[in-house]
Amino acid sequence: MAKKRKSKLLDNKILWMVISLVASLLIWMYLNGTQQEEIEVPLSGVEVVFEGESSLQDTRGYIIANVDSYFVDVTIRGTRLNIGTLSASDVKAVIDVSGITNTGYNSRTYTLQFPDGVDAEAVSLVSSEPAVIGFDVTRMTTKAVPVECVFTGNAAEGYIYDGIECDPTTVRISGTESALAEVDRAYVEIAYEGMDSSRTVDVPYTLLDADGNELSMEGIDLETDTVSVTVRINMTKEVPLTVSASYGAGATEDNTRITVSPESIMISGDSNIVDGINYLSIATIDTTSFSASVTDEYDIILPEGVTNLTGTTEASVTVEVLGLETRSFTVNNITYTGLPDGYTAEVITQSLPVTLRGSAADLDAIRAENLTAVADLSEVSQTGDMTVTVRIRVDGFPDTGAIGSYQIAISVSRGG
Description:
Elements (H helix, E strand, L loop, with lengths): L1 H9 L2 H23 L2 E14 L1 H8 L1 E4 L5 E9 H4 L8 E5 L7 E6 L1 E3 L10 E6 L2 E8 L1 E11 L7 E9 L2 E6 L1 H5 L3 E6 L8 E6 L1 E3 L11 E3 L3 E21 L9 E6 L2 E6 L1 H4 L5 E7 L6 E7 L6 E3 L5 E8 L3 E7 L2 E4 L5 E5 L4 E7 L1 H6 L5 E6 L7 E11 L6 E2 L3 E9 L2
Parallel strand pairs: 1-4, 9-12, 16-19, 24-27
Antiparallel strand pairs: 1-3, 2-8, 3-7, 4-6, 5-8, 9-11, 10-16, 11-15, 12-14, 13-16, 16-18, 17-22, 18-21, 20-22, 23-26, 25-30, 26-29, 27-28, 28-30
């Protein structure tokens, strides 16, 4: 009978609902009482913030400097519900400087600023260290300092470092006179290794004193906090110096020797240009302009954007025609071709001394009837006596020709 009553009691749902409700009420009362309990919270390292600093600078040209401390330690009191989860990073120690009208030393108390969700009026300050913050209010000045760019890296094999440039070359900084007095220059260092092309990057800079010591940026405003730095890296290449020849009068590629000194130079420049340069042609020599050999100096001219690293600006060129002889002849057969319609011409020159170059056998065999001086008059447009250039033709001896240039006198008239 007792067991039956016990089982019936356990199965009574209404009873259990009443018990749960009472238990929940008791728990709520406990928690609510705990959250409303007043506690003290120590906060170490609360940041000091100057409110109105921008306005102070914009309207009066004043700035805050030499702050005694940028952080304070405080202990606050309030309910657990209100301040129990706060940390130092959630709170700011605010000093309003917008109303300052004179330069000089100031000491001010601060107001604690809490995040949203915290009832500031229900929070009291128990202790603070320091309780007062001292700072200087000084007039802001501006200074232009040069930018020093230094490359401490290196170029890859086959390339050469060709200098570094900064843009801008000076930067403007602002701050207190005492802070700016020590600043000597802005310094940028680039340390890329194995560079095989030029590169431009925007990089921050540091401020140095006259002895090269790095200075703190505290209290200094930068007009720009980066500069554009270009490191120039050029390709290098050794290229031969070449000479072209215009052959004639017995001279051919087989019997002509060309010597160039120096034989090659080292050049540098953008890889897109230098990579396509396999030689430098410095001259074209007409082998009919001399008898046996000629030596002359020629400028070494480079394409735009290419630098001569060797430094030699001229090359000595010697051209020698080997195995041939020269001999003097007189040309009596003098004629012309190409005279325009409406003109007549009379050859005034009756004989013309010339020098021929060829093998000894050919020169021995040549006779007067093999030689003809021919003038091309196709460009004649005036009348009267004049001199014109002639070409010396050596009939029957293709490997022999005249060296030098020759002219004859003619008389041109209209008619015919």
